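Folding follows sequence. Below is one example:
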Amino acid sequence: MSAPDEDRRDPVADPGAPGERRSGLRNPDKAVRGLGAGTLALEALVLLLAIQPIRVVGGDLSGAAIAAIVALAVVCVVLAGRMGRPWAWQAGTAVQGLLLLSGLLHWSLLALGIIFGLVWAYALHVRRVILG
């Protein structure tokens, strides 16, 4: 007969229990990959949709800035499809840094870089909490 305390152990509340899940998710790896892919896909969409409003409101968006936006959006889409690779999270962090650097081309890209940098930092935090 087992001890009464062992029967009441909650695997979510007690992440230190051997062989038990840290979160209540059925497949935490897949959930985290989906979070990263969704974040990068949303970033790509926002970058592409932001070109015209930046040109109208912010004015003077150079060809180099537009090329940087399109290139970063393409990289985000490719990385969203590669989130299962071990290097994809580091590459996603590098993309956020490149977006911040593209702020040298136009101030609005710096603003987008700050926003998506914070979103990516939150995604990394959630990944660390779920996967341990």
